[in-house]
């Protein structure tokens, strides 16, 4: 199977660090012209030192900045809505501020950006592909992740509605639902065996994901090889949800 995105423009949000950065690098390696969006200009500068990409600094918690970034990106063929945040808090201690910020970045920005990108695709008379980053936390409750679980459940259903309404325009929309992924931040967060042990025990493959595990799945869903895959939530979780 040969995936080639030569001639395609790919917008990746949250491209400065972690999974988003790895997605941007892989899509560039596969021939796409990447438009990288993230909040921190320094992260964009170092990414631009690694790959040939356009960069846009924007705080996606601000709906106006999210819309401006999508507009500035111009013509886009492939969209990866990766940007996301998590502020672990118990249900009883979850603050309105943290809840609202989580929903603004994880869900609202996804809606705003995809609206603009999809309208552009439709106006140009071309199809396209969208992949939204969700989580296994969309399908199960995870302690101390009230806002995050709620936001990712919303991402799954937002994906379904996008697929239902955009499919007629030749725009495919799918979702990736990873387990714990060992980005540098993830490695620090899950380095304590007392924390990681119980989670690993629930994963039949007995390991957490690596960023490239997620990026490969994203690239496949964006590609023509997935031409009849539409409206799915694809777990990349080592079997976590099978238990």
The named CATH superfamily: NAD(P)-binding Rossmann-like Domain
- N/C terminus separation: 31 Å
Number of strand elements: 7
The main sheet comes to:
7 strands, parallel
**What class would the helix/strand composition place it in?**
alpha/beta
Would you identify the regions where 5 or more consecutive residues have pLDDT less than 50? none
Instruction: Specify the helix fraction band.
Output: 40-55%
Instruction: Report the radius of gyration as a whole number of Å.
Output: 17 Å
Which CATH top level class fits?
Alpha Beta
Order of helices and strands: EHEHEHEHEHEHHHE
Q: Rough shape? A: globular
Describe the structure.
With 243 residues, the chain is an alpha/beta fold. It has one domain (9-183, 210-232): 3-Layer(aba) Sandwich (Rossmann fold). 45% of the residues lie in helices and 16% in strands. It contains 8 helices and 7 strands. It has helices at 18-29, 41-50, 63-73, 96-124, 146-166, 184-189, 193-200, 211-222, and strands at 9-13, 33-38, 53-57, 78-81, 128-133, 171-178, 233-236. A 7-stranded parallel β-sheet has the order 3-2-1-4-5-6-7, sandwiched between helices. Helix 1 packs across helix 8 and helix 3 (63-73) runs parallel beside helix 4 (96-124). The two termini are 31 Å apart. The model has no long low-confidence stretch (mean pLDDT 96).
Top keywords for this entry?
about 15% strand, Rossmann fold, 8 helices, about 45% helix, seven-stranded parallel sheet, alpha/beta, single chain, about 240 residues
In summary, what is this structure?
45% of the residues lie in helices and 16% in strands. By secondary structure, the chain is of the alpha/beta class. Helix 4 (96-124) packs parallel to helix 5 (146-166).
């Amino acid at each position: 199977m040969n995936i080639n995105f030569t001639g395609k423009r790919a917008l990746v949000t949250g491209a400065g660090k972690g999974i988003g950065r790895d997605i941007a690098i892989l899509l560039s390696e596969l021939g796409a012209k990447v438009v990288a969006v993230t909040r921190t200009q320094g992260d964009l500068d170092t990414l631009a030192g690694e790959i040939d990409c356009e960069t846009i600094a924007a705080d996606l918690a601000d709906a106006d900045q999210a819309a401006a970034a999508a507009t500035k990106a111009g013509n886009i063929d492939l969209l990866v809505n990766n940007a996301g945040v998590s502020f672990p808090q118990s249900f009883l201690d979850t603050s309105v501020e943290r809840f609202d910020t989580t929903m603004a970045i994880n869900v609202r920005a996804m809606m705003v950006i995809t609206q603009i990108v999809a309208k552009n695709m439709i106006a140009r008379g071309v199809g396209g592909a969208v992949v939204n980053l969700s989580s296994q936390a969309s399908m199960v409750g995870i302690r101390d992740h009230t806002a995050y679980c709620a936001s990712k459940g919303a991402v799954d259903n937002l994906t379904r509605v996008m697929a239902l309404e955009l499919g007629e325009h030749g725009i495919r929309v799918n979702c990736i639902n990873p387990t714990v992924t060992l980005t540098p931040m993830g490695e620090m967060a899950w380095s304590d065996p007392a924390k990681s042990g119980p989670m690993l025990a629930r994963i039949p493959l007995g390991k957490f994901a690596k960023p490239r595990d997620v990026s490969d799945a994203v690239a496949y869903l964006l590609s023509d090889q997935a031409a009849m895959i539409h409206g799915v939530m694809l777990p990349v979780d080592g079997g976590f949800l099978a238990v």
